[in-house]
Amino acid sequence: MAVMRAAVLAAPGEIRIEEAALPEPGPGEVRIRLEGCGVCASNLEPWAGLEWVTYPGAPGGLGHEGWGRIDAVGEGVTGLAPGDRVAALSYQSFADYDLAPAPAVVKLPPELDGKPFPGEPLGCAFNIFRRSDIRAGQTVAIVGIGFLGAVLTRLASEAGARVIAISRRQESLDLARYYGATETIPMHDHWAIIDQVKALTGEAMCERVIEAVGKQWPLDLATALTGFGGKLIVAGYHQDGPRQVNMQEWNWKGIDVINAHERELGVQMRGLREAVDAVASGRLDPEPLYTHRYPLERLGEALDATRDKPGAFVKALVTFA
User: Fold this and answer.
1) How far apart are CA 156 and CA 133, in angstroms?
2) What is the mean pLDDT of the chain?
3) Which residue intervals define the domain Enoyl reductase (ER) in the entry (predicted)?
4) DSSP class of residue 95?
5) pLDDT more than 90, % of the chain
6) d(Cα 134, Cα 168) in Å, to the nearest integer?
7) Where are any strands of DSSP class E within the chain?
8) What is the C-alpha to C-alpha distance for residues 189 and 1, in angstroms, rounded to an integer?
9) pTM of this structure
10) How does DSSP classify residue 8?
11) In what order do the strands lie in the sheet with 162-167?
12) pLDDT in the model for residue 110
C-alpha cells in the first residue's frame, strides 16, 4: 500500500506526523501533491481544545489552504491534468497529498510559478470585499489587521475608500499603512478609539466597518464605529462560543449586518479566481504577509506562532520538500 506523511491532531496541543494511505482520486476528483498549506486562525480553537471536536482528527485534517501540482486525476475529469499547478478548496492539506473535487480547483498561471499561493484565504478576502460594497469616497474602518485585514485594506484603499485601520500591534498598523490605510489607531481602549473615529469623521462614523478578529470586543467596537445606515461586515470567524450583540444600537442606527463567510462553492471559487488574477497581474502583492515558514514536522510550532504572533508575524505557511 502506498503511503504518505500526514499531520494528525492527536489531542489538544499535540500534533503527530504519521503514515497514512495515499488517497486515490475518485470520479470527478484530482489528487494534488502539495507544495504548501497556509495555517489559518480557525485552526487555533481545535488546537487549544473544544468540547465538540473529536480527537484524534483525520490525517491532514486542519489544512485547508493548500497549493501544489496535480499528480493524478479521477474518471471524468476534464480541463485538468497531471502536472498542472493549482490551488484548491480541500480540507486535509497538512499532508503530502490531498484530494479535491475538480470544480474546487483553479490553475495557477506561469506568473505565479515558484510562489506560494494559499488560495482559500486569498479568495475569502475577495469575497468579503465584494460583500462589503465598498465605494470611492467612503470611510471604512477595518478592525483587526492580520492577513485578511491587510488584504482588505489594500482592496478598499484601491477602490478609493479612506481606510481607518485598528489593531493591537504597532507592526500591524505599520503593515496597514503599507497596504494603503489613511489612518491607524491602536486597539487598546474602547472609548478612546470611538472618540478618535468621531474626530476623524466629524461625528458621522463609518459607512463600512469590517470586523476581522472573531472575538466579542472587536464585534462590539465595530458596532459602535458604524454610522447611521452603514454596513457592519463580520469577517472574523466566531467559533469559540455564542456572541452577544447590541441589538438596540443595530436597530437605532438602521445598519445592515453582513456575515461575509461564503459556503456556496461557486461563490468561493469566484473569489479564488479573482485572487489569482490580482496576484498574477501584480495588483496585489501578498508576499510580505507570508512571514513565517515551517516544515510539516513543525506544524505545532506554526500553530503556536499563529496564536502568539511573535515579532512581525502575520501568516505562517507549512511547506513541503
Assistant:
1) 10
2) 96
3) 10-234
4) B
5) 97
6) 24
7) 3-11, 14-21, 29-38, 66-73, 85-88, 97-101, 105-107, 139-143, 162-167, 183-186, 206-211, 226-234, 256-259, 290-295, 315-319
8) 58
9) 0.95
10) E
11) 183-186, 162-167, 139-143, 206-211, 226-234, 256-259
12) 98
What nine digits make up the cell of 257?
449586518
> In Å, what is the CA distance from 230 to each residue of 24, 163, 205, 227?
49, 15, 9, 5
Cβ contacts of 189 within 8 Å, gap of 6 or more? none
229 burial type by CB count under 10 A (0-12 exposed, 13-18 middle, 19+ buried): exposed
**CA 136 to CA 121: how far, in whole Å?**
24
Bridge-based pairing of strands 226-234 and 256-259 is: parallel
114, burial (CB in 10 Å: exposed 0-12, middle 13-18, buried 19+): exposed
Closest CA to 166 of 133, 127, 197: 197
Domains of the chain with bracketed CATH: 3-107+286-319 (3.90.180.10), 122-259 (3.90.180.10)
Hey, which residues does 220 pair with through a beta bridge?
none
Count how many Cα atoms sit within 13 Å of the Cα of residue 15 in the half-sphere of its side chain.
26
Burial class (CB in 10 A: 0-12, 13-18, 19+), 309: middle
Q: How much is the pLDDT for 244?
A: 94
Q: Say which residue, 91 or 53, is predicted with more confidence.
A: 91
Integer CA distances (angstroms), 115 to 10, 31, 35, 85, 300, in order: 31, 20, 10, 11, 24
Output the pLDDT for position 51: 81
